[in-house]
Amino acid sequence: MDIKFNEKAPIYIQIMDYIKQNIISGKINPGDKLPSVREMSAFLKVNPNTLQRAYQELERENITYTQRGMGTFVKEDEEMIQVLKKDVAREVINSFVERMKNIGFTEKEIVNIVKERLEGEDK
Amino acid sequence: MDILLSTENLTKSYLGKKALNVVNIEIPKGKVVGILGPNGSGKTTLLKIIAGLLKPSSGKVLIDGKEPGVYTKSIVAYLPDTPFLYKWMKIKDSIDFYRDFYKDFDEEKAWELLKFMNLDPDSKVTSLSKGMAEKLNLTLTLSRKAKLYILDEPLGGVDPTTREKILDAIIQNYNEDSSMLITTHLVNDIERLFDEVLFIANGSIVLSGNAEELRLKEEKSIDELYREVFK
Fold first, then answer.
1. Does A23 reside within a domain?
2. B2 has a chain A CB within 8 A of its CB
3. Which residues face B18 on adjacent strands?
4. Helix or strand or coil: residue A60?
5. Cα-trace Rg, chain B
6. Fewer CB within 10 Å, N- or C-terminus of chain A?
7. Which residues in chain B have Cβ-Cβ distances shorter than 8 Å to A39?
8. pLDDT tens per residue, range A86-117
9. Within a domain: A102
């Protein structure tokens, strides 16, 4: 587990993103228990209230649920995970396209260069 | 929300020079609050008044509903920024000393923390390096079951690995029933610990708020804000 904070943005959002990433990549599976707030705050060296907030927001977004006295678990909801994946994919693509445009590529050229890259990988 | 500490128009002057100028703060239970400001801004004066070591020139302080006195000293654990242990003491003597002095001192916890900090109970207090002394002082302070912890520059003059240990100890000892006030000018190392921050300059609060909301609003880290406010 590795996370680098960019302290310009709220830390709880970055913790949420970090947990989402781990769910998407399969490092955390549906039904898994998340580390306790205290464990996570000691590990990330972050205020426990900030972690509490991140966990609350994850629950509000229907990504996790809390079982009283047991902890916080990732929902066993394949659809939710697909939605998460798409959300992240959209962000990645948006930033990629923006950067390519910034260095002077047209949309057509971007499509071509991506194609070339992917076909090259196949071989 | 339960307010653990509040000040009302708190002012302290030394021979006409104002060290604190009409400070109003409210600190709820369960918060870690960073008090940030350059040297000579009034941080230590504020903490000393809260700890009951200085009397305000005017204004009021209430801790758990009481003015500083015998009761508040029993619920406030204060870590000063200057040495406070007797020179003849060994580390284990300092633990005895705290146990005798404070009813809320948890000796078991103190031994645990000493071990965590890699401190030898038989070392003499005067033989400790700056970082080791800081770790000992923090051990003693955090081993009290206080409602309010006041840590004056807990990271002053310690190396990065010691800093990590100190941050760990602070996080592991945080609990929802008590609050912590921490002063520092090493904002970068510790800003992730803060719920709330107070910026203090020339004895006045110039900016305050929830750390996450400030980041959101200003799109800056607390460290960057600090540099901006105090440039």
1. yes
2. no
3. B13
4. helix
5. 17
6. C
7. none
8. 988 998 999 999 999 999 999 999 999 999 99
9. yes
User: Distance, in angstroms, between A4 CA and closest chain B CA?
Assistant: 12
Q: Which domain holds residue A66?
A: 11-76
Say whether A35 sits in a helix, a strand or coil: coil
Nearest to B197 by CA among B178, B216, B182: B182
B65: left (phi over 0), alpha (psi -120 to 50) or beta: left
Pure H helices in chain B = 43-51, 70-75, 91-101, 107-116, 130-142, 160-173, 187-190, 211-218, 222-229
Task: Give the DSSP per-residue string, A86-105.
Answer: HHHHHHHHHHHHHHHHHTT-
pLDDT tens track for B143-198 = 999 999 999 999 887 888 888 888 888 988 888 889 999 998 888 888 999 999 99
* CATH superfamily of the domain spanning B15-84+147-229: P-loop containing nucleotide triphosphate hydrolases (3.40.50.300)
Contact A8 B219 (CB under 8 A): yes
